[in-house]
Hints:
Structural class: alpha+beta
Shape: extended
Number of strands: 13
Largest sheet: 6 strands, antiparallel
Oligomer: single chain
Number of helices: 7
Radius of gyration: 36 Å
Mean pLDDT: 77
Order of helices and strands: HEEHHEEHHEEEEEEHEHEE
Helix content: 25-40%
Number of domains: 3
Amino acid sequence: xxxxxxxxxxxxxxxxxxxxxxxxxxxxxxxxxxxxxxxxxxxxxxxxxxxxxxxxxxxxxxxxxxxxxxxxxxxxxxxxxxxxxxxxxxxxxxxxxxxxxxxxxxxxxxxxxxxxxxxxxxxxxxxxxxxxxxxxxxxxxxxxxxxxxxxxxxxxxxxxxxxxxxxxxxxxxxxxxxxxxxxxxxxxxxxxxxxxxxxxxxxxxxxxxxxxxxxxxxxxxxxxxxxxxxxxxxxxxxxxxxxxxxxxxxxxxxxxxxxxxxxxxxxxxxxxxxxxxxxxxxxxxxxxxxxxxxxxxxxxxxxxxxxxxxxxxxxx
Length: 316
């Protein structure tokens, strides 16, 4: 390093210290510094403190607007959102409430179970206790499914009573009913969801049954005669609505089924043909797939959004 080099060429800033670039240091600079410090004036340059810049101010992120939460009765809340920014807060508020309800319900089930076992042990009547225990267990299962859906990120969706179900939750060991009817009669039998199946268990099936026609000699129209009857033979396959058969929609439905949370999975059908004609719509509309959880004790339903596909061509 020569003396005629400018100072800026001899030093550079690193970690707040001005130092000599390694490629410009003499090969024996350590020995020189120990033996003859005065012969190495460039070492003094290495100790000059660089000016420390003040930390940059980070803009504080504005908190998301919270939904309006009110308490109409002890242990209950009303969550109201009026903008898209408030929906996550509403989701979190409902999740916290359902989790607290699940904790209380689990404790109630444990208490009733102990009481039922105590009554059985002492040979007391257990009918009323068993009924109360069953109702408590059904409500606990209902809450467990809701909490699982909320934790998985599914958003509560207004329940639509006219949605069409194409898959129902049932036990793995469920068997088709022994049912038969005379061929020619307009009779369709639909499989209902088994809401008692706990979250994470069971499987999904189609709503209708496979049938087979057989000849049987039965008492029909006032006499015994050979009649062709239709017998239920097996569960039918799940038929995904053809109008909604888009890859993204089908994949979202498969993920929801893999969780085994929802008792029913269905879709919101498009408007009637006359309504589409009145609106001048040339497409069936935006498909919405919903999952529904059923409270078997009170037959109440809570729906969640699984998939919603918007196509701007529907707005033209």
